[in-house]
Amino acid sequence: QYERLWLIGAMVLIVGFIVTITYGAVGLGITMVDDQEATLPPDDIDDDERFADPRVEQVGEDEYEAYVVAMTFIYQPDPIEVPANSEVTFYVTSRDVIHSFTVVGTNTNTMVIPGEVSVMTVEFDEPGEYGVVCNEYCGSGHHDMEGELIVH
Ligand code: CUA
């Protein structure tokens, strides 16, 4: 009988955790959907058609892909412009050292590692302007490394 109570208690806790995590992911009209894998970039990212020309590309009715390059001490493109009521998958890589791609005031945040691609899908429900900053120490200009994300 007590075992049953423990089981119910444990399940209530688990559900509580899930609700907390889900609730925590919602804020400011930006929702991070999931993490995915992406093809690794070649040694020279200029040989990679995704990153040779950093940009936002429409891939579906309300779906976009953003190819973003971080480097000391900027992000490309800058600003990153996406429409409201869209779902954007970000592919982010670095040209030189480890940076981060952190959208201020949201939970959109990822480490950006040379030779790897960080992938995040984010829903943008409302127009707004956000700062993009770097959380990983990357050199003398680290504290000034910032970009802009504009949701129209
Ligand atoms: Cu880039 Cu710190």
Description:
- With 152 residues, this protein is an alpha+beta fold.
- It has one domain: Cupredoxins -  blue copper proteins (Immunoglobulin-like).
- It has one helix and twelve strands.
- The strands form two sheets. Strands 1, 2, 3, 4, 5, 7 and 10 form a seven-stranded mixed β-sheet that branches.
- The longest helix has 23 residues.
- Dinuclear copper ion binds next to loops.
The sequence of SSEs as H and E is HEEEEEEEEEEEE
Give every kind of bound small molecule, once each: dinuclear copper ion
Helix content: 10-25%
Largest sheet: 7 strands, mixed
What would the CATH topology be? Answer: Immunoglobulin-like
Continuous helix count: 1
Q: Structural class of the secondary structure composition?
A: alpha+beta
Number of strands: 12
So, the CATH homologous superfamily?
Answer: Cupredoxins -  blue copper proteins
Mean pLDDT, nearest integer? 88
Proper CATH architecture: Sandwich
Unreliable residue runs: none
Please, how many domains? 1
Radius of gyration: 18 Å
Strand content: 35-45%
Tell me the distance between the termini: 58 Å
CATH class, anyone?
A: Mainly Beta
List keywords for this structure.
1 helix, binds dinuclear copper ion, Immunoglobulin-like, 7-stranded mixed sheet, alpha+beta, 152 residues, 42% strand, 15% helix
Summarize the structure.
The protein has 152 residues and is of the alpha+beta class. It has one helix at residues 2-24; strands at 26-27, 30-35, 55-58, 63-71, 74-76, 80-82, 86-94, 99-103, 109-112, 118-124, 128-133, 146-151.
